[in-house]
Design goal:
Number of helices: 7
Structural class: mainly alpha
Strand content: under 5%
Shape: globular
Helix content: 55-70%
Largest sheet: none
Order of helices and strands: HHHHHHH
């Protein structure tokens, strides 16, 4: 049985650290930082860790309907999604993920673009 990226990089503990690094960068971002004002960050980090874990072979599972529902009101643009993906790739790199594995993880996130970005976004 092939090892998942989740298993290869140490599971929930490592992914949690990656997500924390991502949010440190996201909060400093002029492009996407405003999405995290007045947010319960510990709760968001826990949720995002589970979400990212699910994308790279971890035990959590999220339906596309649920993902779309939690993002619908945020009016996320394609540009904001691109910034998020770039910062997330940087966070994965900082935690030792190989370039090929980063590409795999980012492809999994890209697969959720259509349900995260606002339908009327440019």
């Amino acid at each position: 049985m092939a090892q998942t990226l989740y298993e290869k990089y140490g599971g929930f503990k490592t992914i949690s650290r990656v997500v924390m690094t991502f949010y440190e960068m996201a909060l400093d971002s002029d492009e996407i930082g405003h999405h995290f004002e007045d947010i319960d960050m510990p709760r968001l980090i826990d949720h995002q860790t589970k979400f990212v874990s699910s994308l790279i072979g971890g035990p959590a599972s999220f339906s596309d309907d649920r993902i779309e529902a939690v993002h619908r009101h945020l009016n996320i643009s394609h540009n904001e999604f691109d910034v998020m993906a770039e910062l997330f790739g940087d966070a994965l790199s900082q935690h030792g993920m190989s370039d090929g594995d980063i590409k795999t993880a980012l492809n999994a996130i890209e697969g959720k673009r259509s349900i995260i970005v606002a339908r009327n976004a440019a």
